[in-house]
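Summary of Year 1 activities. Much of the first year was spent building the evaluation harness for sequence design. The harness presents a backbone, in tokenized form, and records the residue chosen at every position. We chose the following record to illustrate the format because it has been used consistently in internal testing since the harness was completed.
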């Protein structure tokens, strides 16, 4: 939700504009309603901005070239206040002399009141954005302080809401100042150059040394220095770290899309998330958790909070967590949890799941849970992001950077990490013997090659997807752990192929959804393995017969060797067998490939679907 880049450097063999444009290209997945840059040149502040994708900004710069500079900021927008127009594109200028440029991610909640006061004072506004208010406030403060850092400090004191702001001023070349509250900002540490970005992708092509910033902090970068103060003016230090992936990981690497690459990376995402989690005695060790075993033994309820695909990973993990730990586990949409009156106390463990670690709804749910006294653990894919920082502990997934808006490899890594947490709780509380833990870990370890097998078999699924490119609606059915997989399969199709898709619990079919079945209606069915307890396999086979009898076209995902489905399936998509609770890591793959191929056949941009952004940093 808006990508932000800032750069100051010596401009030895690269100009500020090149660095910022490269950063914007890597951050475009965060929003693609408009893009813009501002830099300081000999004449003051120069700005180029255009609605639409980054390509439009490139054309604009081509038509109206910019002078070389050492100091620049850039922005790629997901519109909140004001439509996706040229005027509303960032950067915005501030001050009567128009010497300040500012970019913003987030929402300034009190902007209307501030704007009214500024208009009364004679300020002119050129856009409908909340951001322009901040530009005028920083510029006005600069007139009295003559210092950009102090001006930023004076401005943020007046703002309510969530924001990352970056500003440059024509009278202070070689300086970029950033501020953050509840919105992401990281520092890239170069040699003779420094960087700011919404995430490390903004500068990964130049440095892998980074610095986390805390909440309510202001950072000032020059080519040779990085200084951080709190909003109250006291100096502080950011936490330095080394980024454990490189620029190649954030590139397509020969694939037609990031989504295609990320689907293929899933065996690694699962394997890397499992790596190094057991000691010599085969016991599960989650060192990074740093929560005492005693605290975990006190837990009598688990609540998983998340949004979108991350929520589906929680819904999937619930089955295993309750089975292994015997602790009740609820899974709740973060934005619903936050605004009702949940029963949460010191004995509740709230697990947040978020790829980005920046989803505002999930962040607010975590803060709320902490206020209520709960123990909070973040399952996150992004080092140093806000949600892990605001939690008591973090368990990182190791999926690597996920660039495509539609989440795929993060999903399987999230399920894997939640399984590790569940098993660890079971181990700590004595609910599972060490033999049981070791045996489940071995079964988990066998999943990556099985996922690879599915990936190797996807030719027919691609054919089916191309054949179905003009479908108007597709239904997905699943039962037990197959149910959240049906939901996630439907979400993938909705978000990248713009096809109406719904997932249902197969057992619910007769309670209403079966009315949707008409001749030719395609229905994917995720079939549990024949060994699934409670004879769920037979129940789902009956469901397939029921819909087929009413004319549905059945696309059945079934284990190798499951012959019972053969008479009732129009298409069978075979997957390797695995223990019931681990099957979701395998069965989701054909549904991801199906959505990708169908959207591609429709000629859609699968990495940047309409109206969406990768991380939703506003409520
Ligand atoms: O970064 P997060 O995991 O917190 O994001 C949560 C959702 O916004 C995200 O999973 C979204 O649903 C994806 N577009 C799904 O593909």
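For this record, the design step produced the sequence shown next.
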């Amino acid at each position: 939700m808006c990508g932000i880049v800032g750069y100051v450097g010596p401009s030895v063999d690269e100009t500020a504009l090149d660095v910022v444009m490269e950063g914007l290209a890597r951050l475009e997945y965060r929003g693609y309603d408009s893009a813009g840059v501002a830099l300081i040149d000999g004449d003051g502040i120069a700005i180029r901005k255009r609605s639409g994708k980054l390509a439009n900004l490139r054309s604009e710069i081509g038509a109206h070239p910019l002078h070389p500079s050492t100091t620049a900021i850039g922005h790629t927008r997901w519109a909140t206040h004001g439509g996706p127009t040229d005027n509303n594109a960032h950067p915005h200028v501030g001050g009567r002399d128009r010497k300040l440029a500012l970019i913003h991610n987030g929402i300034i909640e009190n902007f209307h009141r501030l704007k009214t006061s500024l208009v009364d004072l004679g300020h002119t506004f050129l856009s409908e954005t909340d951001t322009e208010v901040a530009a005028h406030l920083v510029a006005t403060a600069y007139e009295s302080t003559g210092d950009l850092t102090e001006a930023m400090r004076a401005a943020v004191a007046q703002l309510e809401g969530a924001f990352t702001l970056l500003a440059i001023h024509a009278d202070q070349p070689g300086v970029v100042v950033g501020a953050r509250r509840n919105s992401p900002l990281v520092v890239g540490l170069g040699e003779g150059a420094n960087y700011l970005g919404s995430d490390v992708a903004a500068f990964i092509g130049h440095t892998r040394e980074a610095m986390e910033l805390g909440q309510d902090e202001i950072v000032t970068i020059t080519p040779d220095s990085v200084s951080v103060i709190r909003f109250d003016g006291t100096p502080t230090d950011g936490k330095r770290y080394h980024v454990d992936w490189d620029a190649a990981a954030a590139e397509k690497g020969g694939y037609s899309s990031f989504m295609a690459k990320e689907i293929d990376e899933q065996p690694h995402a699962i394997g890397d998330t499992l790596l190094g989690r057991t000691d010599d005695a085969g016991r599960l060790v989650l060192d990074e958790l740093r929560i005492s075993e005693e605290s975990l033994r006190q837990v009598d309820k688990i609540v998983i909070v998340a949004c979108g695909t991350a929520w589906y990973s929680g819904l999937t993990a619930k089955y295993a967590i309750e089975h292994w730990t015997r602790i009740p586990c609820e899974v709740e949409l973060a934005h619903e949890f936050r605004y009702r009156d949940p029963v949460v106390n010191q004995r509740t463990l709230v697990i947040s799941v978020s790829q980005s670690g920046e989803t505002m709804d999930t962040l607010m749910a975590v803060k709320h849970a902490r206020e209520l006294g709960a123990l909070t653990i973040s399952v996150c894919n992004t080092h140093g992001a806000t949600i892990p920082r605001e939690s008591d502990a973090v368990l990182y997934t190791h999926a690597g950077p996920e660039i495509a808006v539609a989440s795929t490899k993060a999903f399987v890594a999230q399920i894997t990490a939640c399984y590790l947490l569940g098993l660890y709780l079971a181990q700590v509380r004595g609910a599972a013997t060490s033999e049981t833990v070791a045996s489940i870990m071995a079964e988990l370890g066998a999943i990556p090659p099985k996922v690879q097998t599915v990936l190797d078999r996807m030719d027919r699924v691609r054919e089916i997807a191309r054949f179905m490119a003009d479908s108007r609606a597709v239904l997905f059915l699943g039962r037990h752990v197959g149910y959240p997989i049906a939901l996630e399969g439907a979400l993938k199709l909705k978000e990248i192929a713009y096809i109406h898709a719904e997932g249902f619990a197969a057992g619910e079919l007769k309670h209403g959804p079966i009315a949707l079945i008409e001749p030719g209606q395609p229905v994917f069915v995720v079939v549990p393995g024949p060994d699934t307890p409670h004879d769920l396999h037979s129940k789902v086979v009956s469901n397939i017969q029921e819909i087929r009898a009413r004319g549905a076209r059945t696309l059945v995902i079934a284990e190798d060797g499951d012959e019972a489905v053969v008479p009732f399936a129009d298409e069978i998509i075979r997957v390797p067998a695995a223990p019931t609770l681990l099957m979701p890591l395998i069965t989701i793959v054909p549904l991801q490939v199906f959505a990708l191929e169908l959207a591609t056949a429709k000629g859609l941009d699968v990495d940047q679907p309409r109206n969406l952004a990768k991380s939703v940093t506003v409520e």
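The mean pLDDT is 94. Quantitative recovery figures across the full test set are reported in Table 2.
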